[in-house]
């Protein structure tokens, strides 16, 4: 059964996560996006911690390195 209330609660979370899996640009790992993850009450504490850890790891890389990782991840050869 689909929990529409839960989906509604997660709507903003899905929007932020979709930005993170889209092709990275200069805004992808900005402090504003990190703050959105940090204050997202729909995420469990454990999930928020994991996402912030990954976010910080990727934010520490140059934009070229992140774009290369993205390209390798979605390469369809």
UniProtKB/TrEMBL annotation:
What is the protein's given name?
Nitrate reductase delta subunit
| Organism, as annotated | Limosilactobacillus reuteri (Lactobacillus reuteri)
Query: Which taxonomic lineage is given here?
Result: Bacteria, Bacillati, Bacillota, Bacilli, Lactobacillales
């Amino acid at each position: 059964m689909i929990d529409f209330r839960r989906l509604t609660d997660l709507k903003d979370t899905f929007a932020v996560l979709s930005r993170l899996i889209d092709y990275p640009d200069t805004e992808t790992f900005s402090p504003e996006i990190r703050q959105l993850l940090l204050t997202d009450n729909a995420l469990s504490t454990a999930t928020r911690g994991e996402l912030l850890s990954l976010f910080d790891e990727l934010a520490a890389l140059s934009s070229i390195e992140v774009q290369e990782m993205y390209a390798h991840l979605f390469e369809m050869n």
